[in-house]
Amino acid sequence: MKIRVPKTSLKAIGWLFVVAIVVPAFVYRGAWFPGTEAWVKSTIGVYRQPVSETGHGHGNSPDDSSGHAHGSHAGHDEASSLELSDQALRNLGLTPEFIQPVKLSTYRRSITVPALIVERPGRTRLQVATPMTGVIRHVHAVSGEAVKPGVLLFEIRLTHEDLVSAQTDFLQTLGELDVERREIIRLTEATKTGAVPRVKLLEREYAKDKLEALLSAQREALRLHGLSTQQIDEIVTERRLLRALKVLAPSPDEHSEKELKLAERPVQQAAFQANAGQPNLLDAPPPLVISELRVHKGQSVNAGETLCTLSDYSQLYIEGLAFEQDAGSIAAVARRKWTVRAVFEAPNNERQTLEDLSIIRLSNEIDTDSRTLHFYAGLPNVIESLQPTEDGNYFVGWRYRPGQRLQLAVPIEEWPNEIVLPVESVTKEGAEFYVFQQNGSHFDRIAVHVKYRDQSSVVIANDGALFPGDVVAWRCAHQMQMALKNKSGAGADPHAGHTH
Q1: Phi-psi bin for 52: left (phi > 0), alpha (psi -120 to 50), beta?
Q2: Is 72 contained in some domain?
Q3: Chain-wide mean pLDDT for the chain?
Q4: Same domain, 272 and 326
Q5: How far is CA 61 from the centre of its chain?
Q6: Both 228 and 322 in a single domain?
Q7: Which of 283, 305, 327 is the last residue of a domain?
Q8: Facing residues of 351 across strands?
């Protein structure tokens, strides 16, 4: 006799069974989930590559969770694993900064264009000129010296006859005006008592008005001769002629009348005295360099003649020279606000890079001779040396100099979530590319797929050959490949795997 169970009862029993299994599994997941996860990851690691290369781990510690076997818990395939001592690591230059874990990043494919460091037009060079004719009485500046804005550069004895005559007339009018003012004060008291008629006071007031009008005209004449308002006011206060002029170092950003002073006023000389202590040349504003000195003591100079040239090297430009067909790509980079990378040649065929430079502007014309597009990136400069002399002068050395040649890496395409390594971390043998992954004291050779490479970087496919967190050697892959071949007894091609 068959017993029929209602379908609704079967469904209820099924749901009860599921609940009985799932709920305890969820509640006690801390006991079984880690072990299961480790087993799954180890199984994936075993089947990542052929058995000949999976007999050893790909991590650098037993605790690494990169998803495959690690460290001392796995063996090493001697044909593809290299053991390096501490001395060998130092000989190869594999310091901790060049043994780093792999991580995903955004890579921007770049084109390289030649470039040149240039001055900022109208900003780097400052011309110091004399506003009046005279004779150089003293030169405080030294060619190549570093000075701060506001220090004394030159003292000039004024010899222009018209200027001397104009100052004399100005002082004479000032004296006559003082006399009239005193007379007006005396007549004012006398007219109150009736001792002097009112008309006499009016005549003196009219004469005072005429002298004030004449004095105003003479003041403007002194301005035309090159005197500043401050200098004219000092003549009025001190009642003496301006016989000498002190020329001070100007400021690149401020333009004031303080760049010229009367000879009687004390100012700091350009040559810093030894007893004055070391100046704060490294503080803002940045120091100016006397790049050209055109006069000497005793030389006669005319109004407007250049005395020296000061250079402000704190901010420069990098002038890139892009080919005409790359003009559209450069313009797109400027619109997207992408930054460029400067590459400098260094000793021993090494390269120094400067990242995150912004494109300031593009030229609106194509150079007719070279058929290149000029574009400009800002370059903040750095002081590398500050050398004092026995005379109290200071000479500053800037890291970047106008005329210095370099290359600019301009990004034209962006690839997100890629494995990006230095080009020295990859070696090539035949059709295969390899990196060397740290595994304890060993470095295991791992075959990878290189999607793109340039002079400085390689883009490796994120296909499971490497995982984020794997520690690899960022340089000397070619030397390690040669050492591996020598260990196996194979003849080493000195050019094999070398990346150009």
Answers
A1: alpha
A2: no
A3: 80
A4: no
A5: 39
A6: no
A7: 305
A8: 345
167: Cβ–Cβ under 8 A, 6 or more apart, which residues?
222, 235, 241, 242
E strand intervals along 268-404: 288-293, 300-301, 306-311, 315-323, 339-346, 350-366, 372-380, 383-388, 394-398
- Number of structural domains the chain divides into: 3
User: Is 131 found in the same domain as 115?
Assistant: no
Q: Are residues 332 and 381 both part of a single domain?
A: yes
pLDDT tens for 135-165 read 999 999 889 999 988 889 999 998 888 888 8
Q: Quick one: which H or E segment has residue 204?
A: helix 198-224
Please compute the mean of the pLDDT values over residues 402-428 and round it to a whole number. Answer: 91
Cα 32 off chain centre by = 55
Same domain for 117 and 21, yes or no, is: no
Q: In this structure, are residues 410 and 109 in contact, taking their beta carbons and an 8 Å threshold?
A: no
The answer to whether residue 466 scores a pLDDT higher than 80 is yes
Distance CA 70, CA 57 (A): 4
- Domain of residue 14: give its range: 7-47
Q: What angle do CA 164, 170, 176 make, to 5 degrees?
A: 135
Q: Considering the domain boundaries, does residue 189 fall inside one? A: yes
Model confidence pLDDT, tens digit, residues 230-256: 888 888 888 888 888 889 898 887 665
H or E element at residue 17: helix 7-27
Q: How far apart are the C-alpha atoms of 276 and 488, rounded to whole Å?
A: 70
User: Does 64 map to a domain?
Assistant: no
Same domain, 320 and 280: no
- For residue 152, list its beta bridge partners: 248, 269
Task: Indicate whether this model's pTM tops 0.70.
Answer: no
The better pLDDT of the pair 167, 46 is held by 167
Q: Which of 413, 444, 474 is the last residue of a domain?
A: 413
- Interior angle at CA 484, CA 480 and CA 485, nearest 5: 120
Amino acid sitting at position 256: S
d(CA 496, CA 431): 11
Residues 355-396: tens digit of each pLDDT = 999 999 999 988 888 888 999 999 999 998 888 887 778 899
What is residue 347's DSSP assignment?
Answer: G
Number of neighbours of residue 216 by Cβ within 10 angstroms: 11
Same domain, residue pair 158 and 237:
yes
Do the beta carbons of residue 67 and residue 40 sit within 8 Å? Answer: no
Residue 277 located in a structural domain: yes
